[in-house]
Design goal:
Largest sheet: none
CATH topology of the domain at 46-117: Arc Repressor Mutant, subunit A
Distance between the termini: 32 Å
Strand content: under 5%
Number of strands: 0
CATH architecture of the domain at 46-117: Orthogonal Bundle
């Protein structure tokens, strides 16, 4: 697998190193495609996970994903949709975050589940 991105040198959206399915298999995914160990997450892994949803990650996506990971660190659990939106509205006010925007950006109606998955976090407990 390619080296982890050095965040001080380039933005995650500009990274071109591909992550193969063998890389993901080595890291380990649960039966729903969430990383078993969230500390293994990299922006390249995020793009590989996003590819399964036909999402090309941009700088805006990466800013949101970093805030999702920060939420998890701060509260010790993956965010569900409403707390996620409230948290993002506070931490990224310039993006005018809404459920609709997240659905559009991440190409899904299952915002919390898929955003957490791409962010390398477990599925929120209230997701079926």
């Amino acid at each position: 697998m390619s080296q982890a991105m050095n965040s001080s040198s380039t933005s995650p959206a500009s990274q071109t190193a591909a992550v193969t399915s063998e890389d993901l298999a080595y890291l380990g995914l649960d039966e729903e495609g969430h990383l078993l160990d969230h500390t293994q997450w990299t922006p390249q892994i995020a793009q590989q996970l996003a590819d399964t949803l036909s999402v090309k990650l941009t700088e805006q996506h990466y800013q949101i994903l970093q805030q999702v990971r920060d939420f998890h660190t701060q509260f010790n659990h993956p965010p569900t949709t409403r707390p996620l939106i409230k948290y993002l509205m506070k931490t990224l006010p310039e993006h005018n975050i809404s459920n609709q925007l997240l659905q559009q950006l991440f190409n899904t109606g299952l915002v919390a589940r898929h955003v957490n998955r791409i962010a390398g976090l477990p599925k929120p407990p209230n997701c079926l």
